[in-house]
Amino acid sequence: MSDTYHHFIPKIEIGKWVQDVVQSFVDHTENFFTGLGNGINWFVQQLVDLFTWINPFVFIIIIAAIAFWRSGWGVALFSLIGLWLIFNLGYWADTMQTLGLILTAIIISIIIGIPFGIWIGLSDTAKNIITPILDFMQTMPAFVYLIPVLFLFGTGMAPGVVATVIFSMPPTIRMAGLGIRQVPEDLIEASEAFGSKTSQKLFKVQLPLALSTIMAGINQSIMLALSMVVIASLVAAPGLGAKVYLAVTQLRLDIGVESGLSIVIIAIVLDRITQNIRKQKKS
Amino acid sequence: MDKIEVRDVTKIFGKNPKRGIELINQGLTKTEILEKTGMTVGVNKASFSIKDGEIFVIMGLSGSGKSTLVRLLNRLIEPTSGTVLIDGKDVTKLNKQELREVRRSKMSMVFQRFALFPHRTILANTEFGLEIQNVSKEVRRKKALEALELVGLKGYEEKKPGELSGGMQQRVGLARALANDADVLLMDEAFSALDPLIRKDMQDELLDLQSKMQKTIVFITHDLDEALRIGDRIVLMKDGSIVQVGTPEEILMNPANDYVEQFVEDVDVTKVFTAEHVMKRPETIEVSRGLRVAMKIMKDEGVSTVYAIDKNKRFLGILYGDDAAKAVEQGKSINDVIKPVESVTTDTYLIDMFETLSASPVPIPVIDDSGRLKGIVKRSAIIDVMADSSEVLNGEG
Fold this sequence. Notes:
Chain A is built from 13 helices and no strands. Chain A is mainly alpha-helical. In chain B, strand 7, helix 8 (196-213) and strand 8 form a beta-alpha-beta unit. Chain B is elongated, with a radius of gyration of 27 Å. In chain B, the strands form four sheets. Chain B has a six-stranded mixed beta sheet, with helices on both faces. Chain B contains 18 helices and 16 strands. The chains are: A mainly alpha, B alpha/beta. Chain A: It is found in: Cell membrane; Membrane. Chain A: Its main location: membrane.
């Protein structure tokens, strides 16, 4: 049936075309992406080195102190017990790898995402062009990113970071744009009526007022980044995700539960800390 | 001198404003243009001039184009055609940089919903205009504190706008505009969001500030009472066009058309007219002329009282016919029998003299700032005004 159909109308070779384009892209940009990959690897390694250099108990107390400063006793206590549990289960090194990966991905997301967010907040044209791209980035199954990313960066931490950035950046961009657009019209008018330059309007009025929304976007991005750690492990990114992957392939329920639990603990701690940054700015 | 001159300023919202201008020139109305092209005429060939130091009120119902008109002055909305001259300079021809300069130094704006920056303290809000001009921190702080003191908000510097009541927030809005020290204040329905009592306070305070500062104020409102209360001159707008320009009295006395007449029909004239408008000429006696002359005047004019004044026409008191007769018999002087009576000043509103009037057995004297007798107000005069304001005004001049 299909053969007869294709006899008359040939198959549209979307997959092959994309593969060809990516291949030729890879061939021409190999040096650049290898360099970029090395840069990312180097940055993550610095973070991981720093995290592992710090004594785990000191680290736990620092996080608990931040949690107390930002969210109060409950979250501080949870962080203390949760992180100690991770240490106790023996997943400390993996957790530090994962933290390094997420932190790098989030820093890149912010550096790229905020300017784009401001742009779609200010320009309707930019919004009309970028929004569908963001939809695409978020709805495309995350596994699919891994393939071109593998082509460009090989295996290891760098492709994991890049795939995580692609998947987790959209909320930062969207919410930054939304935050800029939500600034009340009369405040924009007021800043213009007093003779603000475009940059003064942006930095003195729009960005400060959009800050809580932007923080909400970053918080969402962090959560999405965490949800990517297992997928990132498919391209051999080390960390807790790799442990989960190992547990699945070897049917090791014990490792699965312990590493999964560690991810949940990290997620809750990071969420509560960053969420409350947003709330505090609001009040 | 004219501070602001607006000539044939038109704003058309829509896809093809040039075509809209053509249609206006052909004499089509706002409704016809909307039906024909889907474009809205915001302001239709407005022309007027505003004198230095006056409070110029632009008044109209919602949708009349008044808020658009005020934004055409500082080009928050770009005019489609026409010119706006400020100090003789055409604002519509300025480039971005020059326009910013005008907004910074010449015109400040106060907004209906206050438009304070919620993330800044009251002081930082007040400093905003100076801050974006890169004025040094000490100078802008000093000016902002002065402005806040002027509007009565000393001590609130470190609060956030959200912690203040509506009336106080608008004082901050006013202080922010004053801190810039611009000659022109654009006030877009500045008091409309406030409740009536606070609104009245703010109007009084604005008049008070104005008497000290002599700014040129362009005040937008939909409230005729407010317009009449604070406006030196008023322009009435309807459907984007100017219907009438004039002083409050001119508008009340000679409404340009049915629309204005309908508008002013419900005005409480006792809040608009002052003693000066309704007073009549009194029978007076200059005290040095003595009691006998006073009695003759009363007899000749058929009245039972005269108002006693000195050589400089300063009001001394009232002389009753009975007292005068007794005094002549007893050989007393005129000064012994003059009785004091409560008086009002020429600028007292009718509504504020009801009490005095009802308590006084005689028409109440009206005096000017230096105490000179200018006239008297009878109870009947007020009733006449309320019955028909124009007749009284035209009759008395």
